Q: What sequence folds into this?
């Protein structure tokens, strides 16, 4: 049967315009293009994984079999081929034909074979479906993710987490612009399935079964990756129940000297950081401090600087929430000892959060310098930073910390105009894409916008932010967000003690917030 597909000559020409890196003088080969795309997406370790982009996939793109890779893949191709638009390399939306799915085998890194779901139509499995059959699409993606997990056990969990994180980002890049209920429900179920893997497949006993330990660590890595993503929504209780089911056993592996101790300790440190986030939202600061200290302890059993830095930052932020800026500043400065080994995202986060506690201490020059440096260090594409999954620092997080720094200065230096600067910084969140702002961060910013409105003497703005903050605290079930609202309310009550509008607002809002 003849093939009437139109070849993608634009992609072919874009590839062959570039010379091979071998120095032969020949055009770049399909495999070289695939390797460079993989490096852009995942780092050099991606080339060790059988399920990545390869020369055959490039060939199918050039023959026109596939016309519309997902957004992250298109971004990678644009970067490698040095073009600014999809059209320059012949990418456009082509209506997919009906799919026929088959199971095929692909070689794993250990020489064995793993099953992967593949498509026999001109729409590749990684593309979003044409229609609303999101449950089927997520089932296919989940099967693909599990095949990756079973190829990357034991000491490979860092690579595993990176790849799964990228797969989940691809989920999100395929999200529809409207009518998201089925998509969001299917996505959540897929993440919960990954998060339950350590419980679903069993926990090793005694540590004598090397194979069981390796698989357990792979499942823990997958689970923690899913948990980090679930934390961006309102699934705090779900994550807590899942993590409690295996964290103690993971600690046992991390404390026992073995070839897997460093891997297990790195994962245990992440687990305690996640638990610390949940404790914070329950307003259990003593529990959070315990988890963060445990995260530091386990990170110190590894040679992994990013893990040690992340744990110290979490501990320092605990002292911030405890209103102890001196201890917070000291702990952030401990993290700066590792500055040369930090990723750009971690360097930015450390300075951003340090600027807040410097502001609380009234150290104006240090506050401004740290806030400016945090902005300068923040990477253009933070999702490609090695620490992005567990750094817990997005562009929205940077906005939060910078706003908090100026709000702190406004309290210490009320005549310098920092109130308006804080309000302007916080308002950046209103122009951001909703999908780019985790709910926990969004409502924390809104609560601080309410406090900043009081500093500016704007009761109307205060009332609007207060209503939004209450809705967010109830949505998240977060006692920490409620605490922030009460702080803003007390500030307003001190500022406008005899204002009738404030009394009416309190009668409307506060009962809603305290009702359980």
A:
């Amino acid at each position: 049967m003849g093939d009437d597909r139109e070849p993608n000559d634009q992609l072919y020409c874009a590839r062959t315009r570039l010379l091979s890196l071998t120095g032969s003088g020949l055009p770049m080969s399909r495999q070289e293009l695939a390797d460079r795309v993989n490096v852009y997406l995942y780092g050099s370790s991606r080339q060790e994984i059988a399920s990545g982009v390869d020369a055959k996939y490039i060939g199918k793109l050039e023959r026109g079999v596939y016309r519309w890779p997902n957004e992250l893949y298109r971004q990678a191709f644009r970067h490698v081929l040095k073009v600014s638009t999809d059209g320059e390399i012949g990418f456009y939306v082509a209506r997919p034909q009906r799919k026929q799915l088959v199971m095929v085998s692909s070689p794993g890194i250990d020489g064995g074979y793993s099953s992967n779901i593949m498509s026999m139509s001109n729409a590749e499995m990684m593309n979003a479906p044409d229609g609303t059959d999101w449950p089927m699409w997520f089932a296919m993606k989940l099967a693909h993710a599990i095949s990756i997990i079973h190829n990357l056990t034991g000491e490979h969990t860092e690579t595993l987490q990176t790849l799964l994180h990228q797969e989940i980002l691809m989920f999100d890049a395929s999200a529809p612009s409207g009518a998201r209920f089925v998509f969001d429900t299917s996505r959540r179920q897929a993440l919960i399935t990954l998060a339950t893997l350590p419980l679903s497949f069993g926990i090793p006993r005694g540590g004598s079964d090397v194979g069981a330990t390796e698989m357990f660590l792979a499942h823990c890595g997958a689970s923690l990756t899913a948990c980090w993503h679930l934390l961006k929504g309102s699934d705090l209780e779900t994550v807590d129940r899942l993590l409690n089911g295996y964290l103690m056993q993971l600690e046992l592996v991390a404390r026992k000297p073995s070839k897997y101790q460093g891997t297990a300790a790195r994962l245990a440190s992440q687990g305690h950081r996640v638990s610390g986030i949940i404790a914070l939202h329950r307003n259990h600061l003593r529990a959070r401090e315990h988890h963060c200290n445990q995260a530091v302890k386990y990170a110190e059993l590894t040679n992994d600087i990013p893990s040690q830095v992340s744990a110290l930052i979490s501990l320092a932020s605990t002292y911030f929430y405890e209103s102890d800026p001196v201890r917070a500043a000291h702990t952030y400065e401990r993290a700066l000892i590792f500055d040369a080994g930090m990723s750009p995202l971690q360097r930015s986060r450390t300075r951003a959060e340090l600027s807040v506690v410097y502001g609380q201490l009234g150290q104006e020059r240090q506050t401004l310098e740290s806030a400016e440096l945090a902005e300068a260090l923040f990477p253009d594409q933070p999702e490609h930073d090695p620490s992005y999954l567990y750094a817990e620092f997005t562009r929205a997080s940077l906005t939060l910390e910078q706003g908090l720094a100026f709000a702190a200065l406004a309290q210490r230096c009320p005549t310098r105009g920092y109130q308006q600067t804080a309000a302007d910084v916080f308002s950046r969140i209103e122009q951001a894409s909703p999908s780019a702002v985790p709910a926990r961060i969004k409502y924390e910013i809104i609560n601080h916008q309410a406090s900043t409105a009081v500093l500016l003497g704007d009761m109307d703005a205060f009332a609007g932010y207060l209503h939004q903050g209450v809705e967010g605290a109830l949505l998240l079930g977060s006692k920490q967000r409620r605490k922030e609202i009460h702080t803003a309310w007390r500030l307003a009550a001190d500022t406008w003690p005899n204002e009738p509008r404030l009394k009416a607002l309190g009668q409307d809002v506060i009962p809603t917030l305290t009702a359980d």
Remarks:
- The longest strand covers residues 101-107.
- The first helix runs from residue 9 to 16.
- The CA atoms of residues 199 and 245 lie 7 Å apart.
